[in-house]
Amino acid sequence: MFNTLRTGLLFSLLIIITTASSDNCVPHNGRRQSPIKIWTKAATSVFAPPLNWSYGYALKPQKMFLNNTGLSLTLTVNHKEPLQISSGMLNVPYKFEQLHFHWGEHDGVGSEHIIDGFTYPMEMHIVHSQNLREDIDKFVVIAYFFM
To answer: Which residues constitute the signal peptide according to the record (predicted)?
Structure first.
């Protein structure tokens, strides 16, 4: 299990970096969109200090809400303590918005992103945002792949 989690974290960091800097994303109404195809041999390794997950992540939420659309499952929470990530390559804290899952009809499809031509059966995104102005949001999405 540890190796699977470690692999997921490695891929997650690749997605964050690629999302922030890739010119290969399909444009949609002036914005860069998914899916992202990552070829690990072409990726550049970058040292990043560990992310700091706030204390709130260790505590039980007051309320949790699940929404299953049949195409994705989204979890949102009400929490006393702030849920945020900081440090790593982030200059400011980003607050938790929601997490959601992507899956397919069988194990050969499911993940939104593709690693070395491989699509995983399921992918989870933990979405964090930073509100700079009312009309602009910056997002950090951490992805975990499940086999």
So the answer is: 1-22
Answer yes or no: are the C-beta atoms of 63 and 75 closer than 8 Å: no
Is the link from the previous residue into 35 a cis peptide, with omega within 30 of 0? yes
Vertex 81: Cα angle to 80 and 86 (nearest 5): 155
Residue 65, beta-bridge partner list: 76
Residues 51 and 2: their CA atoms lie apart, in Å, by 18
d(CA 49, CA 130): 20
Picking from 101, 98, 33, the residue whose alpha carbon sits closest to that of residue 70 is 101
Q: How far apart are CA 19 and CA 128, in angstroms?
A: 14
Each residue of 17-38: pLDDT tens digit?
Answer: 334 433 444 444 545 567 888 8
Phi, psi of 134 (to 5 degrees): -60, -30
**CATH numbers and ranges of domains, the chain:** 2-146 (3.10.200.10)
